[in-house]
Structures are given as C-alpha cells and as structure tokens.
Amino acid sequence: MDYLAFCRDTQTLTDESRERIAAFMQKYVPAKGEKEALKNRLYEQDKVKLLDNFSVYVNLVKGDRYLNIPFLDESNAFVSPQIVAENDMLLSSGLWGVGTLFYIPKSDENPHGQIWMKEFKPFQLAHIDIAYFCEARRHFTTAEWIYLIISSMGFQPQLYSERQQTLLMARLIPMVEPRFNLVELAPKGTGKSFVFDNMSRYVAVRSGSISPAVLFYNDSRKTPGLITRYDCVVIDEAQKVKTDSSGELTALLKSYLESGKFGRGSASSISAEAGLVLLANLDLDEQRRPISEEVGIFRTFPNFLRETAFIERFSGLLPGWYLPRISKNTPSQAIGFKGDIFGEILHSLRSDISYRDYVKTNMELQHCDDMRDAKAIEAGASGLLKILFPDKQPTEADFYRYCVNPAVELRQRIRDELCKLDREYLPKTITSKHPDEFQRTHQLPVYYGMETGGGSSAAGVIPFPVGEP
Hints:
This is BREX system Lon protease-like BrxL N-terminal domain-containing protein. By secondary structure, this protein is α/β, with parallel strands linked by helices. It folds into 2 domains: 31-122; 131-447, Rossmann fold (3-Layer(aba) Sandwich). 35% of the residues lie in helices and 19% in strands.
C-alpha cells in the first residue's frame, strides 16, 4: 500500500487514487481463504498474477533454483534465470512484487506438476548499489545528511536538537553493525520500538514470554531461533519479560553476548551475528530524570536484568529519557529514503569491515584499557560512521563529534550502572582525543550496597565509597 501511494502521480492522494489502489489490492491480493481457488485457476491453465513476498533458494543437490510463494505455501516452484539475474535480492531477503504464474501439468517427461513464474514486477528496489549510495553522500553537508537520515526514520528533524538526533540515530546501530547489543530505557510514548517495527525486514521484535527455543534453537523441531535468522532481535518492554525458571535463557544470552556463539540440545555450537536490543519503560521524576538514577537504573528490573555479568555484555545504554514524547507533529513531512530501501542499505553495510578498520586507525581514547569497553566503543563508532559517513570521509572533528563521542557515552553509561551495582567495577571516565560536554562534565558514580537502613539516599539503599568493605 505504501509503495502504491509512493508511486502516485500527484502530491496529494486523491479519492480517485485511493479507488485505484483499492482496486489493485483487490485484484492482486486475494483473501487468505482463496488459496485453493487460486491453485485451481493454475490447474485449469489460467495465468495468475499475485502480489506476494517471493524468494528464491538454490538446491545444489538437485541442481536447480526453487521459488518460494508464501501465499500458496509453495516452496518448490520454478522461476526463469532472467528474473533471478534482474532481481538478485530474491536470493537474499526476498522481494515484494507482482508475479505472473502459470502451471505445467505432469506428463511422461515431467513426472510432477510445476508452478512457474514467468514475469515479475518488484515493488521494492530490486538491487542496492552501495557504491553509488556512498558516493552520493559527498554531495550533502553533514547537517543535510542528518536531516535525511532522521526523516528516513520517520521523525520530523526540526523537532529534535542535535543531541536528540544523535540518540535517535543510535537506534540504528544494531541494524548496521554486527553484534552491537543495546539497551534503551525511556518513558512511555517516546517511540522506542517504532524504528525497529517499521525500518527493516531484518529486525524481529518480540515481547512478553521469551523462550530459549524461540530465541536460540528449537531442539525438538531442529529449527534455528530468531538470533540466527535476523540482523537484530528486539525484546520490547523488557521489564515485563518472563524467563524460564531454570535460568537456561539467561545462560544462553550471556554466552551469545560474549562470543556470538551458543549451544543448545543437539546443536552443540551455533554462530550468529544478530544484535540484541532491550527496550524498557522507565519512570521519571519532576526533572525528567530516572527515579532510580542515583542508586542504579537496573535495580527495579527483573533479576536477569540486574546481573552485572549480563549488563556488562551490552555495548551501550541509550538514555531515552532525553527524547520527547511522540506527538501529532512528530511524523516526518520531509524527504527521506523509503523504509524498505533504507533497511536494505543498512543491511548491506553490516558486513563491510573497512569501517571498523577506519575506526581502529583513527580513534584515540584515554582510560579505556578494558577490552569490552574498547570493543563496544569501536563497534558503536563504526556503526555511526556507516550511517553518517558511508564514504568514510569525515573531518577529524566530525568523526569524534558524531561517531566516537556518542559511542563513548553509550558505553560509559553501561560502566556507570555496573559501578553502582557491584564494587568490582571501579569508576572511571573514558575520554576521547576531542572530548564532548558529556565527557568533560561526567561525574564518577558511587557504589550502593543493598543493605537497608535509616539514612539512605534512595529507598533504603546505602552508598559505600569505592574501596571500602
């Protein structure tokens, strides 16, 4: 529907345009109960045009390509080589479009009936030219490019300050950087899950009860879980998530977040590149600061979210309490990339390691000897470099301003929360070669014990100076 509206001839969607779109949908998008009727039309040698999310896979054992047609529950259809050559994304993520299908009955030469697709009109960009995209960046100023990115995310750029725009773009890092694990804590109504729900087909969003079988591997069915099938897995309203009583899910998460590998049941070792994102609601005080900020934001969360060994494995904490609530003026009215195109661009940039090499070569940090800190900041800076400077041509000032310093803040906030929960983590301020205001004004956190007493600074929790028993 969005594609059809996008392709309209006029700026305003008229009643006539709406009627044409409705007629198109009725013609090419049959109701779910019409599957057998559609198959019968094929059987009777009628050509069928169908709007669906088609994909192609290659079976080397049988030596052929096969077409997957979700609406017909058909995974062994055939497609002409020319269609595959012209639409190479059929072989990766799949493509929405109108396919013209016909049926070849079984015969002496053809022991099985075959469904073929002889024509295909994609409703998405069928090929991404990343080199062209990166080169085009050079024709924009940094401010213009940021406006374009924010608008492509669905937000009106003018409503957000530069800092808020940076926080919004940080939500994209797990989509563009392998195994970047992010926690975003924010009050309700700030649009935490909007980008993940609408930006990319490579993102899976789940909430409620999460099982090891769904997330990692279903041993009874021998099927891989979400972590192995998506670029990014988002757990929404994480403060309400119910885990298994055995602790298996937490153990698997720790293993995966640390190494990118896990084992479950008959699958002894599985590798994946998905980033894990936890979204959770947060209560704020009158100054719009987290109520439990002083003693530790994670203290009020479920047990597994309070474990420092678990929290430490996240690359960054996004302070969503700095973002305004979504309003009727929030949706973008400016130019931007179509959501599916932008999602494909982010996906295509994930595997390019040259951005990480650029960061390692050009980034200088102080007080960052911890390996997890260094890797997290490298990954965050690499992700923002892909988003903001895909041509890898930032000035040194812009590189630190838009890539390094935001990544430092995301990781610093993780370290600060660890210090409040566990005296094993000594407080420190990570600084870059060109520190920003956050680094210059950063205050070292205080460890808080869990003992209760009368004179506490927050809800019976007593602060202990670092180094004291």
